[in-house]
């Protein structure tokens, strides 16, 4: 929602929803600089004589040119890297339409296994569901290419506790089927049904 719908690096949207996972990288202006949502909202692509951002361009191309092999978004803008509070970890997506299904490839330079990996994988699964819904395609595969996935020494004890924690059946993710435009999604259009969990396990982010 923050990156792909709100298209902003301003953390005020997160504050409104009591989301604190980005606080370690938020600057004095309560944003993360020219990272992620800033790159999503930049007007950089031309279509139908209009300049649009790369998200709107992606949706347009999936709908009108689904055979394209250029259905890509990227946060890794070398002109802006020095003005980002964090250089993007999960930095690009490629979308492929094959036999009526929308497939997604996500590429990351780095991933913290305990605190980041599962969060990011689920994040992009939700995004894939959203994009498939608004472009009227069935859900295809999701592939994650990760250059460096790692565990920090400080997280080892907590990971051991996590491994020994009780296991639960996966919940069902409900997404409002009436939403047909990506920009129309709100946080209220998502529900986790039959979600169960064990004790909360917290650790510090390694910055």
TrEMBL record:
E.C. number(s) listed in UniProt: 2.1.1.45
Gene Ontology BP term (one): dTMP biosynthetic process
Keywords: Methyltransferase, Nucleotide biosynthesis, Transferase
UniProt keyword Transferase present: yes
Keyword Transmembrane (UniProt): no
Classification via SUPFAM superfamilies: Thymidylate synthase/dCMP hydroxymethylase
Record organism: Seinonella peptonophila
Highest taxon in the source lineage: Bacteria
The protein, known as: Thymidylate synthase
Domain Thymidylate synthase/dCMP hydroxymethylase intervals: 2-207
GO cellular component: cytosol
GO molecular function, one term: thymidylate synthase activity
Pfam families per the UniProt record, alphabetical: Thymidylat_synt (PF00303)
């Amino acid at each position: 929602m923050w990156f792909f719908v709100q298209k902003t690096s301003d953390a005020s949207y997160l504050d409104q929803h009591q989301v604190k996972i980005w606080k370690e990288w938020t600057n004095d202006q309560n944003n993360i600089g020219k990272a992620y949502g800033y790159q999503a909202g930049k007007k950089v692509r031309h279509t139908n004589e209009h300049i649009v951002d790369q998200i709107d361009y992606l949706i347009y191309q999936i709908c009108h040119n689904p055979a394209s092999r250029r259905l890509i978004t990227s946060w890794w803008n070398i002109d802006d890297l020095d003005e980002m509070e964090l250089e993007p970890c999960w930095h690009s997506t490629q979308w492929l339409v094959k036999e009526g299904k929308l497939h997604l490839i996500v590429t990351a330079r780095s991933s913290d296994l305990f605190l980041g990996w599962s969060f990011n994988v689920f994040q992009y699964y939700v995004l894939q569901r959203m994009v498939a819904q608004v472009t009227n395609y069935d859900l295809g595969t999701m592939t994650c290419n990760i250059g460096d996935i790692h565990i920090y020494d400080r997280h080892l004890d907590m990971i051991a506790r996590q491994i020994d924690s009780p296991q639960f059946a996966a919940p069902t993710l409900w997404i409002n089927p009436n939403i047909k435009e990506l920009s129309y999604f709100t946080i209220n259009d998502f529900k986790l049904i039959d979600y169960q969990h064990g004790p909360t396990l917290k650790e510090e982010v390694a910055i």
